[in-house]
């Protein structure tokens, strides 16, 4: 059953609005920095190896532990949860990405409440914390939680790329398959890492995300 729960969490049918964001990819494609399949794969590999995504993935076990403690009645756990959630949000330079994380997080928490798994108290959490909450209540294991988070991010980026590049769904699936070993490698490394000790080399992604709202025309949400 846990495998089926993980499939539900990474499904594009999950009603959290992930399909409406490109996280800067639209800027890079419009500028010509990414124009074909090999460049897209190099970009995704770079983000998996050095991007801000790694800090979020590494934070998932810590967020999950605090959520578990909070559900068990430890009042201080809520404060630690909110502190880590706020720190992750602060690491995102672009206001539109912070808004995306809040919107997706709240959408997932509302879904979990409808499924019978509300938080002990209604608070606003961003996407990583909401994902950790979902994995906890749906009994997804910690390794699967981290791996699924990375897999879902890649899947959403490829979904955006299919709409922006001459890249068909078949080639997107080939890219997803090629990235599976790197996803598994990073997940194994990050699940035992301290997110506050990590660094992000995703300067290009941050600049693209900051620029997105200034595009004359855009397909994806700002």
Could you give the topology of this structure?
Blueprint: H1 2-10, H2 25-30, H3 37-50, H4 53-71, H5 75-90, H6 95-114, H7 127-137, H8 142-164, H9 169-190, H10 203-212
The name of the CATH topology is Urease accessory protein UreF
**Count of runs of 4 or more consecutive helical residues:** 10
- Identify the CATH class: Mainly Alpha
Tell me what portion of residues adopts beta-strand conformation: under 5%
Percent helix range: 55-70%
Can you tell me the residue ranges where pLDDT is under 50 for at least 5 consecutive residues? none
Number of domains: 1
Largest sheet: number of strands, sense, barrel closure:
none
**Spatial shape:** globular
State the fourth-level CATH superfamily.
Urease accessory protein UreF
CATH architecture: Orthogonal Bundle
Report the radius of gyration as a whole number of Å: 17 Å
Order of helices and strands: HHHHHHHHHH
> Mean pLDDT, nearest integer?
93
Q: Could you say which structural class the secondary elements and strand pairing correspond to?
A: mainly alpha
Number of strands: 0
Distance between the termini: 36 Å
């Amino acid at each position: 059953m846990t495998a089926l729960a993980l499939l539900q969490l990474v499904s594009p049918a999950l009603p959290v609005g992930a399909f409406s964001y490109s996280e800067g990819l639209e800027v890079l494609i419009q500028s010509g920095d990414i124009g074909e399949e090999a460049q897209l794969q190099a970009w995704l590999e770079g983000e998996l190896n050095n991007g801000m995504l790694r800090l979020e993935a590494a934070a998932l076990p810590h967020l999950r532990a605090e959520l578990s403690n909070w559900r068990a009645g430890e009042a201080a756990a809520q404060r630690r949860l909110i502190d880590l959630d706020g720190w992750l949000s602060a690491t995102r330079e672009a206001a539109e990405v912070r808004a995306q994380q809040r919107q997706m997080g709240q959408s997932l928490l509302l879904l979990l409440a409808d499924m019978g798994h509300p938080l002990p108290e209604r608070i606003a959490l961003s996407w990583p914390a909401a994902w950790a909450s979902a994995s906890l209540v749906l009994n997804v294991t910690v390794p699967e939680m981290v791996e699924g988070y990375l897999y879902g991010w890649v899947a959403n980026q490829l979904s955006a790329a299919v709409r922006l590049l001459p890249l068909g769904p078949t080639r997107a699936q080939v890219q997803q398959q090629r990235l599976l070993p790197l996803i598994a490698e990073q997940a194994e490394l990050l699940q035992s890492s301290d997110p506050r000790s990590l660094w992000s080399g995703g300067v290009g992604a941050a600049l693209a995300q900051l620029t997105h709202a200034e595009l004359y025309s855009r397909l994806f949400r700002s």
